[in-house]
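Question: Send over one sample?
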Amino acid sequence: MSYLKFDKTQLVNLEYIWNREILRSNKKGAYASSTIIGMNTRKYHGLLICPIEAFGNERHVLLSSVDETLIQHEQEFHLGVRKYQGGAISPKGHKYIHDFEIEPFPKITYRVGGVVLTKQLMLSSQDNLILLKYTLEDAKSPTTLRLLPFLAYREIHKLAQSNLNINTKYQAIPNGIRYKMYNAYPNMYMQLSKRNDFVPVPHWYYRVEYMKEQLRGYDCHEDLYVPGYFEFPLEKGESVMFAAGMTEMEPSNLLQYFDDEIKARIPRDSFENCLINSAQQFFVKDAKKTEIIAGFPWFGRWGRDTFISLPGLTLALGDPKTCKDVLDTMSRELNGPLFPNIGSADAAAYNSVDAPLWYFWAIQKYLEYTQDYEGVWKAYGEKMKNILHGYRNGETPYIRMHDNGLIYSGTNGKALTWMDAVIDGQAVTPRIGYDVEINALWYNAIRFTLELARKFHDEIFVEQWMPIHPVLKDSFVALFWDDRKGYLADYMDGGYKDWSIRPNQIFATSLPYSMLSPEQSRSVLELVKHKLLTPKGLRTLSPDHPSYKGRYEGTQTERDLAYHQGTVWPWLLGHFAEGYLKVHQKSAYSFIHKLIYKFEEEMDAHGIGSISEVFEADPPHQASGTISQAWSVAEILRTMKLLEQYKS
């Protein structure tokens, strides 16, 4: 029996399917995503979504969907399902769905009278290629299948509108056509494993509606273009492959290509294997670089997210090589003391005070795994020292070490920490001043670099930095800690201290080098456990705070107001667990194990087989944000590995 199961009686219920989405990506940065029945509810959904070099490698939706029509006795049965402006559903192919399975590839079974047709979907792991495998399982009469490709040809954050600039011409190739909707794009090749008729019937379908975009307060209507349709007879027991990709294929190889892909996949037959399978999908690789996508379907690479998620996505799975490949890729992009937080090259935004400090932590974890002290110091030592010197000397605007050893960062209109929501040029949680997690990371970075510098006799660095960390530790405890309250202030600026109960203080308990005593760490963790802990991670603000938002919903402004004002983030659970295990040791195993495995119930909801970006702060803690987030998956995997050390 399959590990991931779906209620077949609910597959005709659109409310059931709208909140269950599938995703597959590949190493070239392409992905395919939709709901489990193939009804697109987001502008980010599509069957072939690829980086396009001509547009700066931004991802573009090329093939939005393929509609199937079964034909028997000249009667047509339309299997597609699509929503249009005003709420009309047409066609209503979901009424023919009999079953859905996810392994080894998503598979829909349609039943139309005595006809049983299955459709399987597979995105190539190596090529920008989507394959749809159709098998006529049963039929009593001659059957014809018609396929209509719906094209968007637009960047993922935008929507397509009908226009007169499209190409209407195509070129015939073996068992298919070569076509590009606009001249600036590369060709897309649509082919079948069987000879067929392509009938050019150009047609726009107007005002397709994406209900998830509507709920999120965005434009939600677009026009899709169908250049024509492919039609062919299908025999009982016969399988036919439809392929759409960026290179021409040999039609006779398509069925074998599909079967070979099965061998390259981690089967999603357990909770852990679901997460391992998901972890593999965040990596984009080529000959020169290896990067991590922060989350699907709309994020690209983020510097902060890369370093936070890197150990869990690689080392927890026994893959130090990929870990080093990512570290090397990011190291080449260090600019002064900062990494690009989003974008790269001329489009890079250097707006994260913590990304460079998480770089140290990722290297620490890599060193713990490999014990390659000499290799780490040689590869990353100078860059680590440059970051520290840059922060100390104020080489970057808005970031500087003060005489008390603490890092002061921020300015009006900017949000430099991970709590980075901005509305109309104003940070929702500005946190200008001394931030608790920034200085916990800063202390850890200094101590770690000093450890390596002493080992490799870098006396100049040791002499410059050895006096800093005791001053920093004393300043941190004196300014952030309150014996009566029993926890750490979130940030301070001048004479103001923010005592809002937030999760940022947990990093002072979890990092390898901590400024807190075991008793102080215990007190912090107990408060966080009482005020912020939920079954899906940590709230970003205590419910008793007047600014607390229990729901993450509505327009972008409404969601941004809640993003770090209560909304639950799974990734924070990793550092809560690490700090808690340090304090309570083996006696905490059962408690942390239960927390981590609570996520198993998410495997067949929202993003199938993965963990979402955020959850609502109020029960029942509905999943929201991206359907698959790198640091959510990574920190659960890392904690699962960490638990092995504390198992009795």
Observations:
- Residues 8-262 form a domain with the Beta-galactosidase; Chain A, domain 5 fold (CATH 2.70.98).
- The mean pLDDT is 96.
- The chain has two domains: 8-262, 271-646.
- Residues 373-393 form the longest helix (21 residues).
